[in-house]
């Protein structure tokens, strides 16, 4: 299986790349500058400069793009649109590192995590941008996408436990009443989905067991 990890030098990207390499998959890091991952191959190119030819032949493309500064938040939507456009009509699957703010907190799917009173104001613009990008992704029936939301508490330096709970559109809690997962365990879930391909054109979510 041939996998490309976009923005592989980022925190999530590096761990996803390592997880895939450790499983013996054929991994290519897509980075803007020097490849700082364990991937043996790299495409050194800005995400927005990628072409259909660059990604031809990959079974899975994993999008680990992230933007947090206010002026770059719209890039969540524009970068995802660009990737969808160049993968349009191909068999290549697109897996997206998503956000938790757009997960629903009710069975009717009318209220999201980001709508709750406890959601920090500082993160609302990010959640809104990522939520909008997800809505635009849902409209793409020409791309074999999967959007994977982490737990509400997404811990960059959390330990790798080797297990996780798979959820769907709604915020899921473990038996301790927590919505938490480490980047390392999230990487396991991401690579599992890359290998299995069980959730085409679906949003799923993962939390620590």
Automatic annotation (TrEMBL):
Residues 8-192 form the NAD(P)-binding domain. It holds the Pfam family NAD_binding_10. CDD domains: BVR-B_like_SDR_a. InterPro entries: NAD(P)-bd_dom (IPR016040), Polyketide_Oxido-like (IPR051606). It comes from the Bacteria. PANTHER family: FLAVIN REDUCTASE (NADPH) (PTHR43355). This is NAD(P)-dependent oxidoreductase. It comes from Bifidobacterium phasiani.
